[in-house]
Amino acid sequence: MKIHYNSVYLMDLNKYFAIKLAQYNDDLFFCLDENDVAYKHNIQLFLANMLQLSIDRLSLYEEIAKLDRKLETLLNPHFIEQDFTKLECTIMKLDPWETLLSFICSSNNNITRISSMCESLCVIGDKKITQMMIPIFEQNQDTGDLQFVKHELQPIYAFPSSELLFQKCQQTHDPVGALKKLKFGYRAKYIINTLEKFLELKMASGKPTDAEFLLQNISPLNDAKKIDYAYAKYWLMQFSGVGPKVADCILLYSDISTLFKVKKEDMDSEFISLTNTIEENIWNKIIPFDAHITRIALRDFPHIIKKSNSKNLELMKEDLMNKFGVYGGWIQVLLFTKEIEKNKST
Questions:
Q1: Smaller CB count within 10 Å for the chain: N or C?
Q2: Domains and CATH numbers, the chain
């Protein structure tokens, strides 16, 4: 059983909650602080939206398999066995502000260190929600396996707002140096510069929350402002540490629908039309390009990528996005996961 302890931010309530999230086979369970039980339904909707549970995975994979013979070959074993649990194909939709800083931290980094940096930002903010009993594990020196040691009462922090994080960082004599001591490396300067630029722009826009301000500028569902992919990406790239790939990741993984919900009544139904659900989140089409995806694209999809585009990542991505349409982001996650698994087994 996988168990996670974390804070989550509900944009529509502008409120943080501490949750214990557990997965057992295909079932997902969560526990709340006793003071937050009244928000149980809100958390259910949040988790369903975050994990895009309204999208029937079987229908999704069937549609993906129709797009290209390589994808059909990749998915065929799962269709035969009727087992899709190993695919774990999910585009998590998260708070845009947290997503922005998290992907700045992700530059040339691994998941463990990225998580550690995000936790450090929460500790710096020092906005404690509650405390939870968390199991502590240590590595067995003989077997290398993790073994349970004890339960320990630990604080759960909210992810800090731009104002709070900037204020806390400025309390140190050297904000960049302080983050470097926490092993942020060269990303420390990116974080501080982004905070300064972000606050400058946000203050000129009134008093929106961080999420609201981001969505005003990157969500295509905002009727007040015509936002296309090129504009949203260009807008994000003004922040330090945000290049083309990081901007694509921020767009793909940000929850852009909460404040500009197209069909809010659909949130009450367990499943809705596959096409409507995917098209509603337009940025699901984005295919972030890293070394793995570049290698896969050149190796497995030369019939899609124009020869003249094979040395230009942006043009290669454009070819694949034109071919895969609204399923592009899902296919990227699927291909990336499969490639990592293959590399581990060799």
A1: C
A2: 7-55+90-284 (1.10.340.30), 56-89+285-345 (no CATH)
